[in-house]
Amino acid sequence: MVDTLRTDSLLYLDGVTVSFDGFRALNSLSLIVQRNELQAIIGPNGAGKTTMMDIITGKTKPDTGEVYFEGSVDLTKKDETEIANMGIGRKFQKPTVFESHTVWDNVELALKKPRGVFSGLFYTRDTADTDRIAEILDIVRLTHRKNEYAANLSHGQKQWLEIGMLLAQDPKLMLVDEPVAGMTDAETIETSKLLADIAKTRSVVVVEHDMSFVRDLDCRVTCLAEGAVLAQGSLEHVSADPLVIERYLGR
Amino acid sequence: MITAAILRALDKKAIWVISILLLAAILVPLSNLMLPVGHPLRVPNYLVPLMGKYLSYAMLALALDLIWGYCGILSLGHGAFFALGGYAMGVYLMRQIGTRGVYAHPELPDFMVFLGWPELPWYWLGMDQFWFAAIMVMLVPGILAFVFGWFAFRSRVTGVYLSIITQAMTFALMLAFFRNDMGFGGNNGLTDFRDILGTPIAAPTTRAILFAATAIALALSFLVCSMIVKSKLGKVMVAVRDAESRTRFIGYRVENVKLLAFTVSAVIAGIAGALYVPQVGIINPGEFAPANSIEVVIWAAVGGRGTLIGPIIGAIIVNVGKSYFTAALPDFWLFALGGLFIFVTLFLPKGVVGLFTSVWNAIQARRASSSAQKGVGPAPGPETDFPITTESDAGNAQPKTNPAE
Known about the structure:
A: Rossmann fold, 4-stranded antiparallel sheet, 10 strands, B: two-stranded antiparallel ribbon, two-stranded antiparallel ribbon
């Protein structure tokens, strides 16, 4: 039973526990992300959302527990670079783009291509790459600023550029940490459309505090608290859960 | 593939720098050798090796800036690679002395005879051949940098910690080379050179050729660095400098990027050291002194970190200043150097080159805006290659849009 769950899933976390100086950031967390699924993760500060992403992307190693990608790849034995090249992309909570590169170069660097030093040294952009970069810049609406340094972008635009870089990586699983922080309402709506669109061809996990944004996403919601899953299901189901109301939503 | 990379490297600025260096490689020897003594355009004999020395320092600063300015690795021990290249050349030159030493031993250098060594140590073998010594000049610093970088970058040692261990590396090498048992002349180092490639080392012709070789080597190093910096790898290096963990999450092996840059940089530093030694006539453990390596950082900072021209200009400016001050006001030099570093850090964070660039951009922007107001010339388009200019344009435009009424 457990085995079929694991092999059918794209991402499989079982009983993951991490402690920092005695503080249990994750407490036997179990979570499954299916293929081509859009999933939202909510929860109070300190619930372990970012730590969970650190575990999946190899930044932190779990004390105990299993983390499997595509049913068979043990992520706890891989480092950040290997995991990224396997097809897990991550957008950070604080937008981190390469500020002294142009918008175009940011996407070009992220574009899925051989990552070796020598292929980097002799890389020449072909028309297919140019078209793909232009297409991505179009999707994230940054075509008009493509020659500007990323440092000059607004906060919201940096968020979009980072999503564009994720798209360029062409990952199987996108982990998106608070994508709409610092965005206007109109931008927030656009972002939810964009993410839903992306989730048609790959899995997307979104961590977000903005409940109206989560409602727009219209997907399965997981609520974390104190390092474990508190409730899971549709947003209506989760937000009606008495434990979720007590620990997170308040009232 | 390689031609594409070279063409990309040869932008306008690079062509200028390389042309000037190649021109110097031709004109300086010609003027020194062909013009009669006393001619106003003749480069005097003493100046040729001095200028050669400056250019080898410029190469060292260029090598340092490739890793510091572009990849964020602040090496405070780059003098070690320079000195190792210098020692490799020094060993070759020692073996050219032959029986002309004080003890007239056909094979052993004077200091080995003095120490009572029966034969050459194994690591001196083969070094009488120029081609072999030339390979060692690149291989020894290259391998040390590779092994050092392999461990340091894989263990993710960065920032100040990395700087401190590079400093420790050069200090350890200095102590090692001070020992007589090391087999490199101990405290005195290697000196009293006679011939290089069969020609007398102090002859004006040899000096002129050495200068030309240094200028050409600097031009080639510039080309190699430009190739790296202009490529996608160069962009990855800057990405590592600005956001190392982000680069990792995109899927680049940060340690490999750093390792390649560090090794290339060490090889260039080694070649610079090998060109330095025959022109100054001595190499001793003092070249490993930590203070020397720190001085290289100052050259790069003064000229302009994160540019390829900056370190060359910085090395020349500071060393011309040093030559002048140590002769005119010897007690004053170290204060001047320290003061210069503080001044540059506080007021010229982008160095001399950065100052020129911002003045140039300001002139261009003023010219563009005045011609736009007059209605002559094309108005500046919204998409320029220089975001800095557009930014300052936006800054100029803001007060006008303020509702003054």
